[in-house]
Amino acid sequence: MDKSWISKDRDSLEFEIGVEEFLIFAEENCKDPKRIPCPCGRCVNFKKFSIKIIRGHIYDHGFSLGYVDWIWYEEKSTRSTRSSIGSTRPASDQPIEHFVASETVEVCEAAFNSGNYDKDSYDFQRFVVDAEQPLFEGSECTKLESVLKLHNWKARFRISDTAFTELLSSVGSILPKDNVLPPNAYEAKKTLSDLGLVYIKLHSCLNDCILYRGIHSDASQCPHCKLSRWKVRKNGQLRVNVPAKVMWYFPIIPRFKRLFKSPSTAELMTWHANQRINDDKMRHPADSPSWRNIDYRWPAFGSESRNIRLALSADGINPHTNGLVNRYTCCPVVLVTYNLPS
Average pLDDT, stretch 34-56? Predict the structure, then answer.
């Protein structure tokens, strides 16, 4: 007998057992067993069905990619008791395309894990509704997914808010009457504002000499090149309170805090000290002389394994390659967290 067939049968049996264990757990812990979010690769938790229908979906489409933690269900217990269903990982012989999930799932998980929302708060509930609500009855595309795609198209082709509003109005008139597509650009931006992507706008010198903050917060011209802080009209008059250049800053501290809000991520942040194999072989940056040199020179910093070690890389490129280079100077600064496993 061919041993490959035996291996495949064993994997198939393990997958079936895992599916049944998951369905039993879901039915016991969900408030409404008749309306459970389906975790298959097609529904990705946005549609709710009975256990019988979900079982068929999972066998047809497999589990959605990366579906391990119990996060999409209203449990009888608190969120802190959520279970990791290891058996929900796709079997090795399943086609990978069966497990591709919608990008909106990642957006929702990131927003929830960011700590900006309480699950019972109005803002988060509204955000989840937008993520789960179909664009219209019978549509496989959700409201949030539609808005994300349209906004990406708007940015890619540099479409104005007025033209975007006209587009939304035209598309909305073509869709069924029960569609939930935002009627204008303002409502579309409100839908995305709940993602919790905090940023700060800082006025900058036109020649990048300084930022108008701190001791220069009230300055009206650059102390180095003497250029005005404000835009200049064609006739030479200043447009006061209209900055000549603006830098968009994404604060890094809240993002560092988010690393420790998830118990699993917080444990990985100390992996280099607690779980790394220390056998004088180079497997991780923690094995390098540079790492040990920092620990030697700053022992107070090195003694706390939760302190974050970062590698910084910067380059003046446009990472999106979508035509924005003519309007924006994009200088990405990439920070790599060395605390985490390789």
Answer: 80
